[in-house]
What we know:
By secondary structure, the chain is of the alpha/beta class.
Amino acid sequence: MKITVIGTGYVGLVTGVSLSEIGHYVTCIDIDERKVEQMRKGISPIFEPGLEDMMIKNIRQRRLAFETSYEKGLAEAEVIFIAVGTPQKEDGHANLTYIENVAEQIAEHIEKNAIVVTKSTVPVGTNDKIGEIIHSRLKADVNISIASNPEFLREGSAIHDTFHGDRIVIGTEDLQTRETLERVFEPFDIPIYHTDIRSAEMIKYASNAFLAAKISFINEISHICEKVGADVESVAHGMGLDKRIGNQFLKAGIGYGGSCFPKDTNALVQIAGHVAHDFELLKSVIKVNNYQQSMLVDKVLNRLGGVTGKTIALLGLSFKPNTDDMRDAPSIVIANRLAALDARMKAYDPIASGRASQLLPDAVEYHESIEDAVRGADAVMILTDWEDIKHFPLAAYQTLMAEPIIFDGRNCHSLKEAEQAGVEYVSIGRRAVIPAT
Ligand code: UGA
């Protein structure tokens, strides 16, 4: 089938590349000329394992092309995916300007009947609005139908998630559209759940909000564990054995970040507010997370008595491993707070330092290796559980620091390991390990 994807951010690019991989002819449109030039050469603008190889393969096989022009990009389209951003406005609402502009462009440039599918996360009712915008401007002999197909991929494992997802959700209002979209997705061999458009839009927000709630829940439990002498890792494991609860998204840490959970939880609170529903539970989820992001600094302050003039090594800066995405990363909150307290920071991240340097305060110095960041530091803070950080032996901190104190915001190490290494080790929801003197 001939497919056009509009927007080449995480969702758009991964969607376009994956749809070409399963045999469709895909054109991705983006207004950024430099980015399109790079993508035509097979260079991915984002760091995403497996994406670039798949891009190169499908460009060579002539199933994947990139365009800046709506006219050229939409000429042949049978199915059009909208995958532009819906960033958060100051008041928490989703900003729909990009989506609305795209709807206008589609109306102006399509020459034949097509299905317009929204992949971007949009408030309930937005698809109706997209339909209205397009229909009001459409040429007389052209027809479109509207559908919603929310995205559930995670950054850092986006290709894997696309090919091994638990479900594909398709929201439609007519049988023909439903059947055509079923044919588009069939080669993925993933269960398809059909529903109406508004429910599909809601499934996306409700899913992200629920996952965020699981994280805030276990983070709250972690505080109680510390006070009553329980171990949150063990508690989460024991809870997760119950299939009704499930073992995923129960990892306590320094809170959720990224481009989705913070934005979508705020947007859902707004959506609820519009229909006069005070979503108290979700408000608490957000509040817990805001505290969680800087709580590790409190632990450092309690232990060191202050950080003025001290050197803190920050290990991992991206909001999670396998991505260079810094959006709403806890490292931003943490580094700003430490900078305000006049601490010196030495940071290491295998991929995200470039992006981080544009966002973090000047007091942060960037290093190419864990060893260089840690050498001579007064304390280490582990902020992202990258593989190399997780596997960096705790004993190595002994040789790099005068008095090794590690604050682990991601529970990368076992307490036994910390005891054997003879380091001071403070983690989340577990007792602190203090070496015998
Ligand atoms: C999330 C959802 O998982 C995807 O299903 C969804 O498609 C995506 O948002 C989106 O809306 O586009 P993503 O933001 O890429 O994906 O990352 P996650 O792996 O979900 O992690 C989000 C944050 O939660 C990270 O900061 C991570 O460190 C944190 N987290 C995750 C925890 O603190 N504990 C956990 O147990 C799991």
